[in-house]
Amino acid sequence: MKEIIKAVEKIAIEISELLKYGDFSYAKSSNSTGDTQLKLDILSDEIIENRLKKLSNIKAIISEEKESILEINSNADYIIAYDPLDGSSLVDVNFAVGSIFGIYKGSLDARSLVGAIYVVYGPRLEMVVCDDSVRLFRLNRDNEFKFIKNLELKDRGKINATGGTQKGWSDSHRAMIKSLFDDGYRLRYSGAMVSDLHQVLLKGGGLFSYPATPDAPNGKLRVAFEVLPFAYIYEKAGGATTDGVNDSLLDIKIEKTHQTTPCYFGSKFEIDRVKNG
Ligand code: AFP
């Protein structure tokens, strides 16, 4: 695990440099989910692949930008599923974006997650590492990640980060979102999952939702690379998650590498509200 964290630190610094000075135009290709790829998506994926390939404890890697699993060491333990550059369509407007890593031991299964890490490329470079606890690190002037604090969600927050095409929301979803606003919750939504979930986590709680809609019947966010790593982090931070059906997002079975799901992450109070309508 330590080796993986060190590799992610190096990856974060490299991608951060790429974001500052790299070309943010589109490539001619698209990824498995059909998203048009930016050159930055492809280069970030290469940076991560090259770093992770050097580790002897990595069995395989799975990237949002790759069609299939890349086997590395058949006898090793860890499978890393990652989104190299989440929110990349916001790089042109200079919003904070991120990288997400799910660390699975043995098999690509939610209950095999042993850790998750995400990086936020904002005005500062931050990294949240979760194994048994959830810890925030920040890059200092000497290019070292320094521990800042442990992160915990309160039982109830104030933020309502609502995704998905609103005209496609179900009546029950619309009513639940409205009831939170009626209770004084504030809208915070940038369109980059990493930044939006980072905000809810650092401000102590609230709700991030991306429901099923007719234009995205299984939601938009990808289970293996985005949803499960964040579900792991939120639940370890004392929060809760659901897909609207299961008690926890960690109950979802991964059937396809690029599978998506509706998802809700938050403090316990807001997730109870989602579950109870
Ligand atoms: P991009 O990586 O294409 O910018 O997509 C970002 C993302 O996967 C996730 O980070 C956001 O939460 C979500 O899409 C935003 O989707 P909407 O634009 O439909 O709100």
UniProtKB/TrEMBL annotation:
Cofactor binding: number and manner: Binds 2 magnesium ions per subunit.
Cofactors, names only: Mg(2+)
Keyword Cytoplasm among record annotations: yes
Pfam families the record matches: FBPase, FBPase_C
Membrane-crossing segments per the record: none
GO terms of biological process kind: fructose 1,6-bisphosphate metabolic process; fructose 6-phosphate metabolic process; fructose metabolic process; gluconeogenesis; sucrose biosynthetic process
Subcellular location: Cytoplasm
Annotated Mg(2+) 2 binding sites: D83, D86, E226
Keywords: Carbohydrate metabolism, Cytoplasm, Hydrolase, Magnesium, Metal-binding
Pathway(s) annotated for this protein in UniProt: Carbohydrate biosynthesis
Molecular functions per Gene Ontology: fructose 1,6-bisphosphate 1-phosphatase activity; magnesium ion binding
EC number of the protein: 3.1.3.11
Domain of life: Bacteria
Positions contributing to Mg(2+) 1 binding: E64, D83, L85
InterPro entries according to UniProt: FBPase_C_dom (IPR044015), FBPase_class-1 (IPR000146), FBPase_N (IPR033391), FBPtase (IPR028343), SBPase (IPR023079)
Positions contributing to substrate binding: D86, G87, S88, S89, Y189, K220
Catalytic activities: beta-D-fructose 1,6-bisphosphate + H2O = beta-D-fructose 6-phosphate + phosphate
Enzyme class label: hydrolase
Ribonucleoprotein is among the record's keywords: no
Gene Ontology CC entries for this record: cytosol
Assembly, per entry: Homotetramer.
Family to which the UniProt record says this protein belongs: Belongs to the FBPase class 1 family.
Protein name in the entry: Fructose-1,6-bisphosphatase class 1
UniProt source species: Campylobacter devanensis
Species classification: Bacteria, Pseudomonadati, Campylobacterota, Epsilonproteobacteria, Campylobacterales
Gene behind the chain: fbp
